[in-house]
């Protein structure tokens, strides 16, 4: 624990790599999903950018019968646990139902604390500064090493049987392993809250009104085709001379990745030691196209309009044709009081690679190294992560509100998809889009972004804080911005690598 004071002083305030995993859509403001980040030094987030930190407003009531089959073995009477995560209101209600059942069947007492993805990073740092960590808290793949090196998280090898995790998606178990030097190896430090992906969604109602054919999930749009469709959906509906419906809305922290990677671009070199955006044509062309959707083609809200009302809320209000959808958003989007429109899933448009790409993400449940009740905490995160009946609750089979795809592959590919097909689990059309990104096809690829593999996300924060909005409003070209911001990004990345080397004793 000797490094803790240094860690609190040096830790960055926000890391957005986890998608969002989750909790917030990362859509305009940050999942997370996703993908806010777990230690968040999107979810995530998400999560998404500007307004993803707001609750989507879905008021899901979980009937007690939804957890009838949930039971946890073990008597944990006297155990007193605190769980601290970020979540939207509809997620909180579902997790609370599982916690209530856990307390009923085990005798443990659980205090459940929830915040927003944007606030999570500051609050977890406050816990660390006070040396008073919650028993269970979120950690993202990108912050596993730092949390282990600083002595905050408990290895789970002694508390979670190997067969328990054998059916999990391999990517999310590897994401939470660390051997003291290399990620993906060694002890397991978290059980995944989820494996999420940042898919694309479209408002079928707006397509119908405009007489536009729905996107074909088998054949993703090219950038040219996407722009053409967005133009048809961008409308001055009330005739006052102002656009009030747009083809799409793009949250920079989450949507930009889909355009960069599909065009063969990248932020860092292969060993994550150098920022390489200055002069990299694949990156610059993708960033410029992304910006031109706003400042040249006017098919997205302007920077000023987005500041007044974020794209996520505009999507919920029926003003947007295409918008990002984290797996954690589905329960809210299927709530007619929150989103009273028909919608479906589709692919992000493709750049020069011809492959639709997006970020996959995850956030994990970690147990504090200082917990007094490791067995009880392990039983609770197992209920959240791997227990079949718990997964049925979280994935919507018993509640009717899906927050994620199942962590267990056998359930995900089997009964889960069957329950969507027969209507037991309400879902947007084309759920296979999500599976395509997670499993990969010749036209789809989901990936953990470069931020996942660096010691912290300060270099990414430099990109976000360097004035990128000048590119979106046309005052600066993408090439000019990349040249301007790269030195600050490199300095932040160098510092992160020095911290990593010091922590590992190199």
Provide structural commentary.
There is one protein chain. Strands 1, 2, 3, 6, 7, 8, 9, 10 and 11 form a nine-stranded mixed β-sheet that branches. Strands 4-5 form a two-stranded antiparallel ribbon. It is globular and about 65 Å long. The chain contains 20 helices and eleven strands. Helix 9 (252-262) packs across helix 10 and helix 18 (458-465) packs antiparallel against helix 20 (478-503). It has helices spanning 4-10, 89-106, 117-129, 144-149, 162-165, 170-174, 204-210, 223-233, 252-262, 281-295, 303-308, 311-316, 330-333, 374-385, 388-394, 409-421, 432-439, 458-465, 469-472, 478-503, and strands at 80-86, 109-115, 136-139, 177-178, 187-188, 190-203, 246-248, 320-326, 343-346, 356-367, 444-447. 38% of the residues lie in helices and 13% in strands. Mean pLDDT is 87; it is low at 1-57. It is of the alpha/beta class and 506 residues long.
Tags for this model:
single chain; 506 residues; alpha/beta; nine-stranded mixed beta sheet; two-stranded antiparallel sheet; 11 strands; 38% helix; globular
**Whole-number average pLDDT?**
87
Q: Report the sheet with the most strands, covering strand number, pairing sense and barrel closure.
A: 9 strands, mixed
Q: Count the DSSP helices.
A: 20
Molecular shape: globular
What is the radius of gyration?
A: 22 Å
Portion in helices:
25-40%
**Total beta-strand segments:** 11
Structural class of the secondary elements?
alpha/beta
| End-to-end Cα distance | 18 Å
Strand portion, in percent?
5-15%
Low-confidence stretches: 1-57
């Amino acid at each position: 624990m000797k490094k803790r004071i240094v860690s609190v002083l040096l830790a960055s305030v926000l890391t957005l790599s986890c998608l969002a995993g989750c909790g917030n859509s990362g859509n305009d403001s940050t999942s997370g999903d996703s993908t806010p980040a777990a230690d968040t030094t999107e979810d995530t987030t998400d999560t998404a950018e500007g307004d993803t930190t707001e609750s989507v407003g879905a008021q899901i009531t979980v009937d007690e019968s939804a957890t009838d089959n949930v039971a946890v073995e073990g008597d944990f009477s006297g155990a007193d646990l605190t769980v601290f995560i970020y979540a939207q209101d509809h997620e909180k209600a579902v997790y609370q139902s599982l916690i209530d059942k856990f307390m009923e069947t085990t005798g443990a007492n659980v205090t459940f604390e929830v915040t927003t993805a944007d606030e999570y990073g500051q609050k977890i740092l406050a816990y660390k500064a006070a040396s008073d960590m919650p028993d269970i808290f979120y950690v993202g793949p990108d912050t596993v090493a730092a949390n282990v090196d600083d002595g905050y998280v408990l290895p789970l090898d002694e508390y979670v049987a190997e067969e328990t995790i054998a059916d999990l998606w391999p990517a999310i178990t590897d994401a939470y392993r660390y051997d003291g030097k290399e990620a993906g190896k060694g002890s397991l430090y978290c059980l995944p809250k989820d494996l999420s992906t940042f898919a694309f969604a479209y408002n079928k109602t707006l397509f119908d009104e405009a007489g536009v054919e729905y996107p074909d999930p088998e054949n993703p749009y090219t950038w040219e085709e996407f722009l053409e469709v967005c133009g048809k959906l961008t409308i001055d509906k009330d005739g006052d001379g102002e656009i009030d419906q747009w083809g799409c809305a793009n949250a920079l922290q989450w949507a930009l990745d889909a355009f960069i990677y599909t065009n063969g671009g990248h932020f860092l070199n292969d060993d994550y030691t150098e920022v390489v955006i200055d002069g990299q044509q694949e990156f610059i062309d993708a960033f410029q196209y992304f910006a031109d959707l706003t400042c040249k083609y006017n098919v997205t809200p302007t920077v000023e309009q987005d500041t007044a009302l974020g794209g996520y809320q505009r999507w919920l209000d029926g003003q947007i044709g295409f918008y990002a959808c984290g797996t954690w958003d589905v329960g809210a989007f299927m709530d007619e009081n929150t989103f009273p429109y028909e919608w479906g899933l589709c692919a992000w448009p493709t750049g020069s690679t011809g492959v639709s790409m997006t970020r996959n993400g995850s956030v994990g449940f970690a147990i504090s190294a200082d917990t007094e009740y490791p067995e009880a905490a392990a039983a609770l995160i197992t209920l959240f992560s791997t227990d079949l009946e718990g997964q049925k609750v979280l994935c919507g089979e018993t509640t009717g509100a899906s927050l994620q795809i199942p962590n267990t592959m056998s359930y995900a590919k089997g009964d889960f998809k069957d329950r969507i097909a027969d209507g037991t689990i309400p879902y947007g059309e084309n759920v296979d889009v999500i599976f395509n990104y997670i499993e990969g096809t010749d036209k789809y690829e989901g990936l953990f972004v470069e931020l996942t593999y660096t010691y912290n996300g300060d270099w990414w924060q430099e990109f976000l804080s360097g004035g990128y909005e000048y590119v979106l409003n046309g005052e600066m070209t993408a090439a000019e911005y990349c040249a301007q911001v790269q030195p600050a990004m490199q300095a932040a990345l160098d510092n992160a690598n020095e911290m990593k080397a010091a922590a590992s004793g190199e």
